[in-house]
Specification:
Elements: E1 5-8, E2 11-14, E3 21-22, E4 25-26, H1 28-36, H2 39-65, H3 80-97, H4 103-120
Antiparallel strand pairs: 1-2, 3-4
Helix pairs in contact: 1-4, 2-3, 2-4
Length: 121
């Protein structure tokens, strides 16, 4: 009879749980940490990590578009600065929500490991 756990070098996990991956390999440290952190805290950490990546991307996009001159939406008119900042903010949120450039995964992992360490003390 199969118990509901699988044996791993770093503890047991429910069979139906997905193993987190790090650089294409199972991340046993994160898997163990996730068992110590509440689902609500996990959701909050994921949202915080995504927001952090959106902020980074917004800064990057702002720098990319700051020197553009000319006509059209990126022209050099009085209202363009405000419009451009709103556009880059929406671009960054959209990129981050779609998976971004990978920063949020590392931030999420770090937040969860820190919270698990705090819970274990």
């Amino acid at each position: 009879m199969q118990s509901g756990l699988t044996n791993h070098p770093h503890g047991s996990m429910p069979i139906n749980a997905l193993m987190p991956m790090l650089n294409g390999r199972p991340d046993y440290q994160l898997a163990e940490a996730l068992t110590k952190v509440s689902p609500q805290a996990q959701v909050k950490a994921k949202a915080t990590a995504t927001d952090f990546e959106a902020m980074f991307l917004n800064s990057m996009f702002s720098q990319m578009t700051s020197g553009i001159k000319g006509e059209g939406p990126f022209g050099d008119t009085p209202g363009t600065g405000v419009w451009r900042s709103m556009l880059t903010e929406q671009y960054s949120k959209s990129f981050a929500k779609a998976g971004g450039v990978g920063i949020s995964n590392d931030v999420y992992r770090t937040l969860i490991l820190q919270q698990a360490n705090r819970a274990g003390q």
